[in-house]
Amino acid sequence: RFYQKITDIYATSIDYDPTQPQSILFFQTVQNKLHWAITGQTAAEIIHSRADKTKPHMGLNTWKGSAHGGKPRKADVGIAKNYLNAEELAALNNLVEQYLVFAQGQAMRRVAMDMGDWIAKLHGFLSINDRDILDHAGKISHDMAVAHAEGQYEFFNLERVRAADVLESDFDRAMAALPMASNTSLNPKKLLNTKPNTSRKK
To answer: What burial class does residue 8 get, using C-beta atoms within 10 Å of its C-beta: 0-12 exposed, 13-18 middle, 19+ buried?
Structure first.
């Protein structure tokens, strides 16, 4: 919901059109300024520096389905907020929630705001919160970051598949070592097909 909250704020801009390139660039600019305020890195720099095939979950701390035991997917590795730790994510959400309240107040007062106005207000808001303000485009492009992350994912996923194959092979070897006697207690297939005896002696 984090990125949706940002979109909700800036959708009130009188010149905001999600289909236009300038609106997409505007959203990326705001996103980078918020990430920089919390981590000192742009979204692309976060992805590029933290995506690591050797780390658990490839360096991701959250991803779609992570709360329910799901595994990281390729679509998850190109999202900067997925690499933030709990403290960073809480700080980021706190900033956005505060700013959302401010935006709602502007809307209630019917104050017309364009995208340029929102950038200026964001700078002032970050200054009040003693946060650093990003004034450059960053050292890593979005395309470079995503390419790096997806490359790391390919290695990470290959190792994950190999590890699963090893576990399966170990299980197969263990089962093959069992004496397959006619006794159902030693025969897994017969055990699976055995029906419980529901009859009772009178």
So the answer is: middle
